[in-house]
Amino acid sequence: KLFCGKIEGSGGSGLGHAMTAVLPPASPDVQAFGGVSAWRDQQIAEAVALFEAGNYSEAHALAMDSLSTTRPGSSSQPVREGGQGASSEPADAWRDALDDVATAHEDVGDPERAEALYLRMLAWREGAEHYRQGHLGVAEQLFRKSPEYNTVEDATWFLQTLSPNDGHAVANVVGLLALGTEVAAKAMVAVWTLALRPHQRPKISECGGLELVAKAVADHMKHAELQTAGLGALRLLCTGHHLAHKNRRALVFKLGGAEALAASLRFHTTDPEVQREGCGALRAIATGNPSGARRLLDVGGVGLCLSAVAGCPLDDHVGEAAYSALKALQCASEAGSRAGTAMAEDLEAVVEAQLRREREAGLRFCEEQLSPGVGGQRVAQQTLLGFASMFLEDESIRHRALGLVEPVVKCMQGMPGHAKVQLACCHVLCQLTSQHLAQGEGAIRVAKSGALGLMCQAMRDLPCNVELQETVIEVLLNVTKNNNEFKTIAVKAGGIPATITAMRRFPKHASLQEHAIGALTNLCDTIGRSQTCAKIGGVDAIIAALSRFTQVGNIAELACIALCMFCDDTHLRAQVSKSGALPIARTLSKSASSRGVQRWAGELLKELSPEGLIPHAPTAA
Questions:
Q1: What letter would DSSP give residue 394?
Q2: pTM score, two decimals?
Q3: What does the pLDDT look like over 442-469, one tens digit per residue?
Q4: What is the end-to-end Cα distance of the chain in Å, rounded?
Q5: 531: Cβ–Cβ under 8 A, 6 or more apart, which residues?
């Protein structure tokens, strides 16, 4: 109401006319609210006038003079909540002066008017700030609602019975976010509750909910409950409705949402609820929004996800939220559709370099966290391994992460039979043994660390997990390539029967069959190993894959090579022939689309012909 007097008397200023246009006519009580009769004290009236004019320091001094008159011996610097004196921050000067004006008014025997003054002035102050920032809808909402605020109970009583379906209360709830920490905390929970229904998120956004939630999160950093509800509300307002994309951009580029979000996560490092909702908000902002993801990278988004797991190592939901957020941030190097080819290439190069540095730092963090063994902390292990696997999708940095082999093997030893941990470990070891500059060194470290035995045991412990089965088989394929010592280690670990069992259990899984045939070709390069493989069904498994997938990948060529290898032994050659390989070889040698397949099918046909020979046409005498 004090601002109302200032605005209506502001002459020809655009701010005064615009604000007056959105307000209802002032009542006589409102018109007299700033006068001496209303305040019963000349000093307080002058303090209010100074407050109107923005002169907070002199308003504070006059209010304290009045306080010392009504309370002889009162200190000129009253103790505030938390035992601290008046804030020295310029941005808080207006709030300190308002506190003192309300306190002085309360001291002269009118506490209800003091509370009403405080709440209404907070609403007006926020309205004025949002008006100056161009958020006209938010400003109008605050101006219209402010005359209704008399006490905290009056303002918040209806929140006690609020449910997610009470969409009619959106406007009332949003306005409460401007009324200080106590009221804003209750209102924030209510906003989050209403935003649980996707169809109500556009209405919350149109009533200024996004702006007020973002500002409340930034202003009330120490209040954990408010932060949890606020970050959750931001997550919901940025997903699942037609204004979500607009909200994501506004939050990052107009409202300082990235900075507020980062500050909250850094302040509440060990609060699992804040970390969970904060990581959820990171994911919501970055998903489908490369420019937003780049902004989050600039404020340390990758490090925030890593720190969330380090700070809350026992919370499964934090780990899942942090992983999803980190995954969403990887789109930062994508250029928008409006960018030209040259600009898109430049942007991708710059951001990819930044992402690569972040990934390398992330891999070092994972290695440091896993090296001492996070003693039985399954959630932390699982999430850190997931992070490592995500970072290692960038093949250009794999050669820098070979130090992960030993910590990963320790995780496998510590969590036998746990599907998620075992699978994550196998993924990392597979990445470290393929498609990078030092994959040979990676294979050596994996073989000598005892990982092959642990992985084959994981295949036996988790026989129905097709992803784990295929990943282990691929590691066997990578490690046993061109190294007889490692072939022996894999055979002793049970690699041959484990591979054949997987082929039988998942006969329709083409990529598993292809990797399995390649692994058996590596492992069965001696007569003894070939005979062992044949005895437990290896020949039948290979021919079954060849029959089913003759036109898929390299299965036909690999199968023909493996069967030719078995034919080096007379008894095995007979078994291959009885298993139905001959007609398949004859067909492939004539009609296969690949020359490699035709060549090896022809070689197999020669091996399987009577006495190892193909009948020739009679020659001329």
A1: S
A2: 0.76
A3: 999 999 999 999 999 999 999 999 999 9
A4: 121
A5: 569, 571, 572
